[in-house]
Amino acid sequence: MKKSIIGLLLIGAFAVSMPFIFNKSIDVKEPHKLDIDGNFIMYDWHYDDFKDEARVGAGTDWDYNLKPVQISERVWCYFGGMEMPTKENAGNMSNSCYIKGDTQWITWDTGPSYIFAKQAYAEMQKIADMPVKTVIISHEHDDHWLGNNYYTEVHKAKVVGPASVNENYYGPRHVEGKDYPGMQTRMIRALYQNATRDTVLALTDEAFEDTTEFEISGVKLEYVKVGYAHSEEDWYLYLPDDKVILAADVVMNGRVTSNRDGLVVGQINALNSIKSREWNHLVPGHGFVTDKTAADETVHYFDILKDRVIEKMEDGVIADFITKEVTLNEFRNMDLYYVLSPQNVFRSYEELEMFDEDDLIDYSDEKEDDDDEDED
User: Fold this and answer.
1) What is the pLDDT of residues 54-66, one digit of tens each?
2) Which domains does the chain have, with CATH numbers?
């Protein structure tokens, strides 16, 4: 009897650990470069170095140990880890970028906390001592924009971002003579206090209805709306003069994407939009590859996800069994495969029951029209 109980416990422990057994983890003691010359960087944080330090909110701010990486003449980025947000990574698991204007820095996504944004800016200030006057946000997931209030409070910056941020979140507010705090997002709940201290939800000041071109401090920008893709409302930023795209989470590489809030068709349309632009470097929302192959994994993932789910649906496979029939084994060695890919497959089944080929957008005609206008 005792052996049976032990056996059951071992089976249970194995089942719980299965999502993590084969996951890769990045472990690079000496960072490389990924820059304008095409070199490569993977910069990781070695938590064993801090195991004897108190990380419970008291004492000094969390040290994110940030190193900016130059992508083009005017663009520098910070690259987060490949895991989910945890206390041990202090939420640093997404990428954020800084664009050097003539008189100011323009920030693309501000990261997981006030402290992160403060430390990131301190590094940028060493490159050019200019303020951040404009913050541009890609989508509503909070690992990308909880650093906003550092810039709104210290730099008096304006936040440009999706309307969905203001619709789905609320910051500190004063109602009927009483002060109420902002909502506790997943990042604020998950991280140690010395990572989230001073973080307050600073929502968007300006939202656009559609793709918009503008110039800030001598930098031409195209803020491209791709709609319901990875989240309820996604945008990417295109710098035509630099031939750079800051794609945020509509592109990930080196890890499996999370489609918990997204749509397969929306993702494919977003990727088609990106492919229609002329670019040399693309910075994903998660991942380290920024060259011409940066979007290839995401394109491949969603193409085969769509095709295989539809094929199995046509074969009569019901939703309960779709994750057994569609496994996407090509991505098995990527980070977060066991955590995220099954839920992506299941969610895709629900969406693709109503799939229509006409829902896919072909941006090639739009590109040809733009080329014709340039020739004229």
Assistant:
1) 444 445 788 898 9
2) 24-207 (3.60.15), 250-371 (no CATH)
CA distance 304 to 297: 11
Q: What share of the chain is helix, strand, coil (3-state, %, to 5)?
A: 35, 20, 45
Nearest to 351 by CA among 240, 265, 232: 265
Is residue 340 exposed (0-12), middle (13-18) or buried (19+ Cβ within 10 Å)? Answer: buried
Taking the C-alpha atoms of residue 245 and residue 200, their distance in angstroms, rounded to an integer, is: 29
- Do the Cβ atoms of 94 and 111 come closer than 8 Å? yes
β-sheet bridge partners, residue 239: 244
> How many whole angstroms separate alpha carbon 283 and alpha carbon 26?
18
Instruction: Report whether 131 contacts 155 (CB < 8 A).
Output: yes
First to last CA, the chain: 84
Instruction: Provide Rg for the chain, Cα atoms.
Output: 22
Give pLDDT tens digits for 213-250.
999 999 999 999 999 999 999 999 999 999 999 999 99
Containing 322, the helix (H) or strand (E) segment is helix 322-325
For the chain, the residue count is: 376
Closest to 109 measured CA to CA, from 150, 72, 70: 150
The region, left, alpha or beta by phi > 0 then psi within -120 to 50, assigned to residue 172 is: beta
Supply the pTM of this predicted model. 0.83
Tell me the C-alpha distance between 308 and 323, whole Å: 11
Using the structure block, give the residue that is written with the tokens 């108190």: 54
User: How far apart are the C-alpha atoms of 203 and 160, rounded to whole Å?
Assistant: 9
- Whose tokens are 């001592």? That residue is 129
The answer to whether 99 touches 219, Cβ cutoff 8 Å, is: yes
Comparing C-alpha atoms, which of 214, 216, 208, 196 is closest to residue 165? Answer: 208
CA angle 39, 41, 46 (to 5 degrees): 160
